Amino acid sequence: xxxxxxxxxxxxxVVYNIFKIKQHSHLGDSLQFFIYDVIKIFILILIVxxxxxxxxxxxTPENTKKHLTGLPLGVGNIxxxxxxxxxxxxxxxxxxxxxxxxxxxxxxxxTFSYLISAPxxxxxxxxxxxxxxxxxxxxxxIVSGLFVAIFGGLVIGELKLEKFVEPFVYQxxxxxxxxxxxxxEGNSATVKERLKEAKESAWDIFKxxxxxxxxxxxxxxxxxxxxPTGFLVKYAGAQNPFAVPLAVLIxxxxxxxxxxxxxxxEVLVKQGLPIGTVLAFTxxxxxxxxxxxxxxxKVLKPQLLAIFVGILTVAIICTGYLFNFLL
Length: 327
Prior knowledge:
The chain is mainly alpha-helical. 73% of the residues lie in helices and 0% in strands. The chain contains 16 helices and no strands.
């Protein structure tokens, strides 16, 4: 049973019965896609953000640091990447989290595994991928994202790049990591308090992402309705051996919230682009955004920031090629 069928019927009714737009026209297809996807994504965001907000209430930045301290390097990277999925802190926490992790004695490579994973594999990405593409693609994205986070952290850790962290980071003691929640300290909150926090967190997430959703779905609707099916496949299809690097290079300088970029990737897949190419583009947009790089520059010297971007870019390109080969 298609749980989104009522939304599809509603969007069809609005476009073809109320607006009287001709069926299968460019305008009709675009508008129907826009209404359908906006409503569907809004519902998914609110429901899943509430559920994850409740789970997140059990994870503070402080106890996250505690679980990542004193572990063997490989184990630490894997655990850090996994924790990045279930502790989706807001982007404003990137700097204080980095400082807090380093101050707690967590290895630099482990810290980077977490910082790569958290923005790229969060609750919004998971539920939207599942809702838009199905469970198979969602799992592929999660597995590949974890690989990129673990690989990137391991390489940075092995290169011993601590000297390229800004000196003031090591001089700070007892840094607050910017916990975004308002629950009592020590995880002593009641279920009612956690549910209240989850509701506020879901609404806060929704207010932050809905403009990106509207813009992203709008661009996707234009591509869906007005761009010929063969156009994108011609230039970025499987026959182009440089399609994956091209997708990454396009995605690196862009900034889009994951909720804004996924509707575009949905259309790209429907247009016939290989899934590996589309996943590489999505990862580049979400993991290598300019605002995050600007924030991280406050704590990283240019050399380390450049190495971080370079390693991620290479890892994402390799992941894209791999999944194009496998699928």
